[in-house]
C-alpha cells in the first residue's frame, strides 16, 4: 500500500515539477541514506522494530510539512497536490502506528 501510494504521489510530483520547471534532486538526503544504511545492517525483529519506528517518524515529519504548506501555498496546483496527498499520509501514519504497536507487542 505504502509503495503504491508513494509511487503514485511521486509521479504526480515529478510531473508537477516538470510543468513548473523546478529542478529535481538526483540524490538522497543524508538523513534518508543514514536510515537506509542503518536498516540494511539489521535483520529479524530488530529490522521490524526499526522499520516501524522509521515509518512512524517519517510520516509524522511529512504530515507536518504538508500541513504547513497547505496553509501557505499560493500556487493552485501545489495546494491541490498537498490537499490531495495529505489524507493518504495520515492514513499511512495510522497504519505505521498500528504496525509499530504490533511489532512492539510481539517482540517483548
Write the layout of secondary structure elements.
Blueprint: H1 2-19, H2 30-40, H3 44-72, H4 76-107
Helix pairs in contact: 1-4, 3-4
Q: How does this model look, in words?
A:
- 83% of the residues lie in helices and 0% in strands.
- The chain has one domain.
- The longest helix is centred in the last third of the chain and has 32 residues.
- It has 108 residues and is an all-alpha fold.
- The protein starts with a helix and ends with a helix.
Record field, number of beta strands:
0
Number of domains: 1
Main β-sheet: number of strands, strand sense, barrel status? none
* End-to-end CA span: 27 Å
Give helix and strand order, one letter per element, not per position: HHHH
Based on CA atoms alone, the radius of gyration comes out at 16 Å
Percent of residues in β-strands? under 5%
> What global shape is seen?
globular
Roughly how much helix do the residues carry, as a percent range?
Answer: over 70%
What average pLDDT do the residues reach?
92
Low-confidence stretches: none
Q: Classify the oligomer.
A: single chain
Would you tell me the structural class of the helices and strands? mainly alpha
Count of runs of 4 or more consecutive helical residues: 4
Amino acid at each position: 500500500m505504502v509503495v503504491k501510494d508513494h509511487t503514485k504521489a511521486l509521479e504526480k510530483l515529478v510531473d508537477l515539477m516538470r510543468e513548473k520547471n523546478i529542478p529535481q534532486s538526483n540524490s538522497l538526503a543524508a538523513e534518508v541514506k543514514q536510515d537506509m544504511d542503518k536498516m540494511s545492517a539489521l535483520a529479524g525483529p530488530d529490522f521490524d522494530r526499526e522499520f516501524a519506528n522509521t515509518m512512524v517518524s517519517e510520516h509524522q515529519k511529512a504530515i507536518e510539512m504538508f500541513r504547513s504548506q497547505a496553509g501557505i501555498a499560493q500556487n493552485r496546483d501545489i495546494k491541490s497536490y498537498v490537499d490531495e496527498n495529505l489524507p493518504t499520509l495520515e492514513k499511512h501514519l495510522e497504519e505505521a502506528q498500528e504496525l509499530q504497536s504490533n511489532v512492539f507487542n510481539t517482540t517483548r
